[in-house]
Amino acid sequence: MTIPDKRSLLSAVLIAALLVLAFWTTLAWLTEAWWSDAYYSHGPLVLLISAFLIWLSRDTVRRAPEGTQPLGIAVLALGLLLHAGAVLWRAYYLSAFGLLAVLAGLCLFFLGRQAMGKLLFPLVFLSFSIPLPLAERFGPPLEVFAATQATNLVRLAGIPAVNEGSRVILAGSTFAVGAPCSGLRSLVALIALAALLAHAVQGPIWARWLVFLSAVPVAILANLVRVVSIFVVAYSWGPDVGLGYYHDVSSLVLFLVALVLLILLSRGLGCGDFNLERSS
Questions:
Q1: Whole-angstrom Cα distance, residue 38 to residue 185?
Q2: What CA–CA distance (Å, rounded) separates 249 from 70?
Q3: How many C-beta atoms lie closer than 10 Å to residue 33's C-beta?
Q4: What are the backbone angles phi and psi of residue 247, rounded to the nearest 5°?
Q5: What does the pLDDT read at residue 1?
Q6: Which value, to the nearest 10 degrees, does the dihedral of the CA atoms of residues 110, 112, 113, 116 take?
Q7: Which residues contact 279 (CB under 8 A, 6 or more apart)?
Q8: Strand, coil or helix: what is 71?
Q9: Other CB atoms closer than 10 Å to residue 164's CB: what's the count?
Q10: pLDDT value of residue 279
Q11: What is the pLDDT of residues 32-58, one digit of tens each?
Q12: In whole angstroms, what is the distance from residue 192 CA to residue 129 CA?
């Protein structure tokens, strides 16, 4: 990759400064959300992965032979319009998507279509770091689903249980399946990892899309198994054990199991070796 001259470097620094100034409120909101929202604590990791993917493409990302692409201006303008409307509505997650559109427009305009093909996935992958208002909409239904299905499964194992919405009553104890056990947090993180996996593996496009889409049922199933195991442990050794050490450890273990299942699925669908430098 050629070393940029002083004029190009100065232009890049100026554009970056203007972006920070224009999106300062959105960037501050993102930072606060990553720090305080448990569902999106993986946001900084997504940034690092995207930066690493861009670094891998450093030797092929260069100005296209045909020069600048006017289409980039249209994409940039669309992103700025989205940002302006989102700030007025205080919908900062939409403003964050506007920032991605602005970055895409700048890349397309200055670097051309060929380079944009390399940078498209890292830019799209950044969207998994944007906190969406999911907890309020999908959290309660997932809590009720996990509680209801877990109750049915432990009954099959001979454990007496009563389900009341998101509450499960076992012998001598009552559990409220709340946000941590709804599976939404692991679902959000697993979808991001599934996207990265589908991008990296070698295989037919339909198989890679299937791997990505399978993240949703795999995450829901893994969380259901986790909730059932918590009830079994609580029934057998007491609620303090089930909701204590085992509750925390089971979350990480089941997430890793879900990830392994996605990798095995990709292998079963004929996807082979990994290649993070794939063009989008």
A1: 7
A2: 52
A3: 19
A4: -60, -45
A5: 43
A6: -50
A7: 117, 118
A8: helix
A9: 13
A10: 61
A11: 999 988 888 889 999 999 999 988 887
A12: 9
Task: For residue 166, give both structure tokens.
Answer: 């998101």
Tokens of 223: 């969380």
Read off the pTM. 0.85
Whole-number Å distance between alpha carbons of 240 and 247: 10
Q: CA-based diameter of the chain, in Å? A: 74
The letter for the amino acid at 250 is S
> What is the average pLDDT value for the chain, to the nearest integer?
87
Is residue 2 scored above 60 in pLDDT? no
Residue type, 121: F
Rounded to 10 degrees, what is the CA torsion of 8, 12, 14, 20? 180
- Using a pLDDT cut of 90, give the percent of the chain over it: 45
- Return phi, psi of residue 164, to 5°: -135, 90
Among positive and negative, which fits the CA dihedral 73, 276, 26, 7? negative
DSSP for 114-138 reads: HHHHHHHHHHHHGGGGS--S-HHHH
Structure token pair of residue 149: 């299905």
Higher pLDDT, 171 or 92: 92
pLDDT digits (tens, 9 = 90+) for 121-151: 999 999 999 999 887 788 888 889 999 999 9
| Region for 90 from its dihedrals, namely left if φ exceeds 0, alpha if ψ lies in -120 to 50, beta otherwise | left
Q: Where are the alpha helices (DSSP H) in 113-214?
A: 113-125, 135-156, 184-200, 205-213
Q: Is 58 exposed, middle or buried (0-12, 13-18, 19+ CB in 10 A)?
A: exposed
- Using an 8 Å Cβ cutoff, are 125 and 104 in contact? no
Q: What's residue 68's pLDDT? A: 62
The type of residue at 194 is A
